[in-house]
Structures are given as C-alpha cells and as structure tokens.
Design goal:
single chain, 147 residues, mainly alpha, 6 helices, 3 strands, 67% helix
Length: 147
C-alpha cells in the first residue's frame, strides 16, 4: 500500500467518525456548520451581513441544497432571513439568538469530546495536529482549486 493510499484510508476513517451521528446527533451536519459560520464568522466581518451565496461559497455547497438547509433552520426558528433595504435582491441570514439551545447544547457536547480527546492524545500533540491540519487545508484548497 502506498503512502497516498494509507493517508486516504486514515482520512476516510477520521471523516467518517467526525460525520458520524454520535458526534453531532442534535443537528444535521450542514445545519451545524451553517450555525457555526453564522455564529463565528459574522462577528469578524465588521458588520457585513452574510447571504446564502456567501454560505454556499464558504461551504462549497450547491444553492438548492443550501436553500433546503436554510428552510429547515428557519422552520426550527434558528435563523432569520431579512431583505436588504438598499437592494431587495439580497437576503441576509442571521442567527436567532433566542432559539439557539439545540446548537449551543451540541456545540458544548462536541467541545467536551474534543477536550477529552486532547487529554487522551496530549495537549501538545493536539496543538501540533491542529496547526498541521490548518496547513494541510490550505495546500489542499490550492491543489483542488488549481486542478
């Protein structure tokens, strides 16, 4: 087995565990990701609102799938959509902070699991892994964008 095959096998095992319901059973994966983006990214965008198109780009998701996911989040009362006053074509997506219990509960549960993994694996190794994953993500993004 080549190193590339070994890496692919390890990567698939890791992503299978992460996407597994045991890690995020309260909300589907895409809904969790959107809430996470809206919660964290919106704070650092200097007040710039996020649209469905922005979310599609960030998550590399098709518009139809994004719309279905946003409809589900809206039905759950977790997000709101607001038309721009300047340009009615733009619809901004915001978290409904009054109805975030499900997301917050799941987020806290995941953080506790990561803390436990860090204790088992070692904090120094965990930090090293985090930096390596960030670097690898940048390289992977470059390779995939440039073909």
């Amino acid at each position: 087995m080549t190193n590339s095959e070994k890496f692919l096998e390890a990567w698939l095992q890791l992503t299978t565990i992460i996407n597994n319901e045991r890690l995020s059973s309260d909300l589907p994966y895409n809904e969790s990701m959107i809430c996470n983006i809206l919660f964290h990214v919106a704070r650092v965008r200097n007040g710039k609102k996020i649209t469905a198109t922005d979310l599609c780009q960030m998550m590399q998701m098709k518009k139809s799938q994004m719309n279905r996911t946003l409809v589900n989040l809206e039905k759950k009362g977790m997000i709101t959509r607001t038309k721009s006053e300047k340009d009615r074509r733009f619809i901004y997506i915001d978290l409904n902070h009054d109805n975030m219990e499900v997301y917050e509960k799941q987020h806290e549960k995941i953080l506790k699991q990561i803390d436990y993994m860090s204790e088992k694996y070692g904090e120094d190794k965990m930090l090293e892994l985090m930096y390596m994953l960030k670097e690898f993500t940048l390289v992977a993004q470059e390779v995939l964008e440039n073909g």
